[in-house]
Amino acid sequence: MGLPDVQSWKPRSGFKLTRVGIKGIKKQVYIKRPDRTVQLITTMDVSVDLPASKKGSDLSRNSEVIEEVVEQSIREPSPSLEALCSEIAEKLLQKHEYATHSEVHASADYFLDRFTPGKRKTMEPYRIMSDVFASKGGKIKRFIGVEVMGMTACPCAMETIREAYGKDLKMTHNQRSIATLVMESRGSVDADDLIDIAEASMSSPTYEILKRSDEKDVVVQAHENPKFVEDVVRDMLANVIKKYGNLPDDTEIAAKSESLESIHKHNAFAERKTTLGELKK
């Protein structure tokens, strides 16, 4: 005797649901970079829409799709995190024949080799994210994003101190800054480039290992390059145009900066959501 398919029953209240899925799935995936293959411990949220005629979504199908794509990445690493998410999103629509829309959101810690001002090699942590939205009929929109931690020095306090105590002084308060940069990707946006753009847009990078001479150089660099949280966002946008100005004008971009304030009990933030065409006007 077959088991009852409760998900296919007619619901008591017949409303369509925008998203039904599973979240917080952790998987190890393999991504092919130009010079290496990286293993990412990725956290994913996946979902599809649900018609008004169906009581529940077949959630086990989501897990099946994820397992299939993850296993494939072991044998043949995916070219990017957003490519892997795209494959999951497309297969979700195949598995859920009643669905018209699918979403996949993924994030993972990511590491790159960096060099301190004194040329000491260090491996630095970053965060990469991907959001993919797919629709029946083949329409798909992919985003790749990064989260980068650096340092900013406040220009307002610096100028106030210089006015009061002398123009040669470059004293100010500084704070860790978290920059987030997300771009629509049609295969030509690289996460490593976005990390470089975000990191270069702050007063100074930060490092896990700093000897005293490195510490001095990082502090001096930051105070030679003071920035508001607003400056970080604007510089990220300017650097995006320099790197990716040849992409289509309708390419979507989101840039955000948050300062973990050192002399306040609150944080400061700034952001801009736009398109490449809007930025170039």
Structure description:
It is a single chain. The protein is of the alpha+beta class. It has a domain at 139-281: Urate Oxidase (Roll), CATH 3.10.270. It has helices spanning 59-75, 81-95, 155-165, 191-200, 212-224, 229-244, 276-279, and strands spanning 17-33, 36-50, 101-115, 121-135, 140-153, 174-184, 204-205, 252-260, 268-275. Strands 1, 2, 3, 4, 5, 6, 7, 8 and 9 form a nine-stranded antiparallel beta sheet that branches. Helix 1 crosses helix 2 and helix 4 packs across helix 6. The longest helix is centred in the first third of the chain and has 17 residues, at 59-75. The relative contact order is 0.11.
Give a short synopsis of this structure.
The chain has 281 residues and is of the alpha+beta class. The protein has helices at 59-75, 81-95, 155-165, 191-200, 212-224, 229-244, 276-279, and strands at 17-33, 36-50, 101-115, 121-135, 140-153, 174-184, 204-205, 252-260, 268-275. Strands 1, 2, 3, 4, 5, 6, 7, 8 and 9 form a nine-stranded antiparallel sheet that branches.
